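A note from the maintainers: we've had questions about how concatenated examples are separated. There is no special marker in the raw files; a new sequence line simply starts the next protein. For clarity in this README we add a label.
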Amino acid sequence: MDVSAPTPPPDGWPAPWDPAQDLILTPRRLRGLVHPIRVRLLHLLEADGPATASQLGRRIGQSSGVTSYHLRTLAELGYVVEDTERGNGRDRWWRTSFRASGFTFRSPDDPGDPETIELAEQYLRMVTASYYERMRSYVDSLAGRMAELPTLPWTFHEYSIELTHEEARTVAGQVRDLLDRYRREPGAPLTRDGTTRAVFQFQLLPDELPDEASGEPS
């Protein structure tokens, strides 16, 4: 499979994507990746740095044999490589081939077709399911955080807004610029006293319920 960077749109890739460092996924490039374990493994290697199949298996509740199989598949696709500097002859370490990954429909040479749009839907469902599981896990943990609840900063909201497509791109860029000030490099330890490893989830979507989006009467 060819994982070279797809053709950029006329106005370039949105910041902070860099085709020389980042895996820019388009509908056609999802072939082989659309599997919940592979998507999860790729995310873990991006977020936490190199790991062995056994370490990753413990993280996702799978055997090392299962994770080894999917890591080899990701390697065949060009998404991960063996980290030979860490291998010791007993354990194989794996790392991503890229700094980060992101999905887009904007590549002129791969805007999607009926077959690949279905792949894109499957991939995005897996990604959004992982977002939901992260939020649900936090909510489920509240009973064990009773003493902390009055002072915890973690939060999520939904705001009703009105904006043009260009304004939406501007808002997304401003949020990215702000978050870059706090970015943690993959696998890097916390470097400042009092900091906590956290994740920021950002959703900017049209305000359409399923029946509204399909035009079906409620």
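[label: protein 2]
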Amino acid sequence: MNYNQATKFILSWAKLGRKEYLKDLRQCEVYLKRLQFFLDLIGNPEKQIPHYIHVTGTSGKGSVCLMLDSILRTSKKFVGTMTSPEIGPTQTRWQVNGQAMNNAEFAKILTELKPKLDTYLTISPYDPISHFELMTAIGLYWFAKKKIKWAILEVGCGGRYDSANVIPHKDIAVITNIGLDHTEILGKTKAKIAYEKSGIIKPGCKVFTMERDKKLLKIFEKEIKKYKKNTKQILKTLTTTSYKLQVTNLKGTIFKYQNNTYKLNTLGQHQVNNAILAIEVAKSLKISTSKIKLGLSKVKLPLRMEIISKKPLIILDGAHNPDKMETTVDAILSLPLVGGGEEGVIEKRIIPLFPPRNLSRVYLGKGRERKVFHQLHLLIAFSADKNITQMLKQLATLKPTSIAITKFQSPFKQAANPKDVEKLTKKYFKNTKIKTFNNPFTAFNWSKKDTIKSDILLITGSLYLAGEIQQKLTN
């Protein structure tokens, strides 16, 4: 099987009929049972990996995984990391020591696993494993072949019955926070969602969270009590008030936490919260502060407020639910007044972030002249199952000059119809130029055409959209 054949096989497997994730709450355990049956057929790779860190939450879980990956690799640990969804070819969701699975490895693994999948269909008492369950099996199989020592796994959805929860043990369970996303699957309330996500807690693991809602923390503690009486010894709740932001600009963020200074090469103050989670997890693993600092300074967070151009400022962002969009909007509104923010000074905003075109500079006295951003343009696409209305309301606070509405092309996720999104958009953007497109890159070119060097073009609403634009620009 070559690479193209392997890719086609993955797509064909996804079309097989099966019980889909959490469609019947009375039969949820079947998801893990059917995946375990397949893992048994391929030699139980999940049992060959000594250490696991498992990360769930509504927002930030991918960033925390990548931060921990960088820290652990800096401390010379042999690490495999699995995130989702992929932001390019299928095999980009897995990496070992910072390197994604290549095409040849992907084809070889699918060639080895296909006979086992055929056997599964013949002898399994269950329906076919899902596409996501197969992705998990491939990742674990590759990690075992590579003989990694640490696996960092991001939950796809929920936690309790998510395929990554098939692992037999874990050192660390991280629950970043709880918000209202995937409500059609996980439940309509934060309490129900917290219950599903708390399911990643297993015997003997340490639990870290940034969630501060006491009612939700009690749900975590109840789960912990199944395995240990003294919850205080195993649950570490972190707050976001114990750090000092020192510098934030287009080059990154510098903050002070517990008398140590850390640097992130990423935009957005919300990433500091994710970094603190990663810091505390790393400290629990006895990793030195110097290694933690170095690891965080090296981390790259693709499609998380990723700057791909400075003149104009073009940002690729995968925010796809109201919690994530809130941090995206805050990050844009918190940009330094300086066009590019190269000085790295945090200043009190004294004029609107996006002034009229005839106001291109602000004078701060003593000959200091600083350029400001002019106007904001949006390129957006959403998944059909998301809270699009709420995200549009959040984006409306940015008062964009133009909005290009499009759709992504993923075979695994249904995109919202651009015309339907346009109808909603016109309710909240009264004096904005709006145009719809079926092709993301055509939409990108339209937005960029009206974007001058001192403007901002924000591409957001979906990791799939941002990933498609990134792939087109890099190919």
